[in-house]
C-alpha cells in the first residue's frame, strides 16, 4: 500500500516536497480556505446518483474522485473543531480491510502573479502513526497554444506531530525551469491517503504563498554532487541508483526531466537522512537520450545528468 500513494502522484505529475514554517508571509486567500461553507453535491456513478457534502469551491481529489465513480462517498467531512472560524475539513480512512483515505483539491487562476509556496494548519486525532501517508500538494500549469504543461510542483508530506494540537505547515513550489514561473493556474490538494482506520486528520486555513517560505538551516552537503550508477544506463537496465549526500534529515522531491525540460517518469517524495542516501530511479520506460535528475530540498536544488543508452 505504501507505493500506491506515490504511483498515483506520478500519474498526476506532481508531488509534495518540503516542510518549513510559514512564518510572517503574504498569504493571499483561497476561496473558502477555512472550509466554513459546505454544500450538497450529486454526481452520477456506476451504481447511480451519489450525494455527499463538500466544502464550497473544493472538489474530490485523486482518490476521492476515483472512489466516487464506483459509488463510494468521499471520505472528507465537516468538523466543528477548527483552527479559526467554526469549521475545518476532516479526512478519515475506511475501516479494515480498507484503510484508504481521501483527498480534495482546489484550482485557482494565478492572476498574473507567481505562487512560491503553499501552507495550511493540520491536526491529528492521535500522534501521527507510521502507517500514515498523505500531504499537501500543489502543481502550477501553463497553457501554451492549447497544450497544458506542468511547470511547477511543490508542497509537503505530513510530518510526525502531537495529537489534538494545531500545527502550521508550509512548503515551497519548485519550478522545473527557474526562468518560467508564470503559470495560468495553481492546483492545491489536501490528502490523507492511507492510514489507521478510525484515525482522522483535520485541515484548516489553506493558503497560497506569493513569497518563498522561510529558508531552512543551511545543509553543509547542499553543494555536494549527486551521483548516478550505472551512468550511462545500459539499454537493458531497468533502473539506476541515485546517491545523495546530506548532513541532516529533510524532506525532498525527485524530478526526472528529458532534454526539452519535460517531466518524464514519476515524481516522488523522499526523506533524506544524515549521510549517504540512495534512491532507485526507474529507466526501463526511457528512450535513448539525455535526462536530468533534480533533487529539490529546503536548502536548494541539485541535479545530475543521466544518459540512457
Summarize the structure in words.
The chain has 309 residues and is mainly beta. The protein contains two helices and 19 strands. Strand 18 (289-297) and strand 19 (300-308) form a beta hairpin. It is globular and about 55 Å long. The two termini are 33 Å apart. Residues 1-28 and 215-220 have low confidence and may be disordered.
Brief sketch in words of this structure:
The protein has 309 residues and is mainly beta.
SSE order and pairing:
Blueprint: H1 2-12, E1 38-45, E2 48-55, E3 59-60, H2 62-69, E4 76-79, E5 88-91, E6 100-109, E7 117-124, E8 133-144, E9 147-157, E10 167-175, E11 185-194, E12 201-209, E13 227-229, E14 239-246, E15 250-257, E16 268-272, E17 275-282, E18 289-297, E19 300-308
Antiparallel strand pairs: 1-2, 3-6, 4-5, 5-12, 6-11, 7-10, 7-12, 8-9, 8-11, 9-10, 13-14, 14-17, 15-16, 15-18, 18-19
Q: Strand tally, please?
A: 19
Estimated structural class: mainly beta
Mean pLDDT figure: 80
User: Helix tally?
Assistant: 2
Main sheet summary: 10 strands, antiparallel
Q: Key features?
A:
single chain, 309 residues, mainly beta, ten-stranded antiparallel beta sheet, four-stranded antiparallel beta sheet, 47% strand
Amino acid at each position: 500500500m505504501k507505493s500506491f500513494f506515490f504511483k498515483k502522484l506520478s500519474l498526476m505529475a506532481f508531488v509534495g516536497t518540503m516542510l518549513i514554517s510559514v512564518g510572517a508571509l503574504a498569504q493571499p486567500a483561497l476561496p473558502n480556505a477555512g472550509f466554513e461553507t459546505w454544500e450538497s453535491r450529486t454526481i452520477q456513478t456506476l451504481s447511480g446518483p451519489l450525494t455527499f457534502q463538500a466544502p464550497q469551491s473544493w472538489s474530490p481529489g485523486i482518490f476521492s474522485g476515483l472512489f466516487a465513480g464506483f459509488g463510494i462517498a468521499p471520505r472528507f467531512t465537516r468538523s466543528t473543531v477548527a483552527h479559526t472560524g467554526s469549521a475545518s475539513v476532516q479526512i478519515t480512512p475506511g475501516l479494515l480491510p480498507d484503510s484508504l483515505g481521501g483527498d480534495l483539491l482546489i484550482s485557482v487562476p494565478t492572476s498574473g502573479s507567481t505562487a512560491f509556496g503553499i501552507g495550511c494548519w493540520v491536526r491529528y486525532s492521535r500522534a501521527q502513526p507510521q502507517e500514515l501517508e498523505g500531504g499537501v500538494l500543489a502543481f502550477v500549469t501553463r497553457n501554451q497554444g492549447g497544450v497544458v504543461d506542468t511547470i511547477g510542483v511543490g508542497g509537503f508530506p505530513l510530518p510526525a506531530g502531537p495529537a489534538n494540537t494545531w500545527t502550521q505547515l508550509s512548503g515551497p513550489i519548485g519550478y522545473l525551469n527557474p526562468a518560467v514561473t508564470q503559470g495560468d493556474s495553481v492546483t492545491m490538494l489536501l490528502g490523507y491517503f492511507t492510514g489507521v482506520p478510525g484515525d482522522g486528520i483535520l485541515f484548516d486555513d489553506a493558503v497560497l504563498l506569493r513569497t518563498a517560505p522561510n529558508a531552512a538551516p543551511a545543509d553543509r552537503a547542499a553543494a555536494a554532487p549527486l551521483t548516478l550508477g550505472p551512468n550511462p544506463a545500459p539499454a537493458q537496465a531497468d533502473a539506476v541508483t541515485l546517491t545523495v549526500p546530506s548532513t541532516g534529515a529533510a524532506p525532498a522531491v525527485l524530478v526526472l526531466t528529458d532534454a526539452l525540460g519535460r517531466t518524464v517518469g514519476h515524481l516522488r517524495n523522499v526523506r533524506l537522512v544524515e549521510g549517504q542516501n540512495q534512491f532507485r530511479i526507474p529507466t526501463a520506460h526511457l528512450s535513448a537520450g539525455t535526462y536530468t535528475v533534480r533533487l529539490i530540498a529546503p536548502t536548494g536544488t541539485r541535479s545530475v545528468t543521466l544518459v540512457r543508452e
